[in-house]
Amino acid sequence: MKQSMGPFIVFLLLMFSLTSHAQISSNQLGNNRAAQYFLGGEDQVLMPVNVWGFVLRPGQYMVPFDTDLVSLLSFAGGPQEDAKIKSIRVVRASTKENEDGQVIDVDVKAFLQNGSSDLIPVLRPGDTIVVYGTTMHFVQKFFEFTYKIAILAQVYALITFYSKR
Question: I need a surface site. Which of 2, 98, 152, 153 has the fewest CB within 10 A?
Answer without folding.
Answer: 2
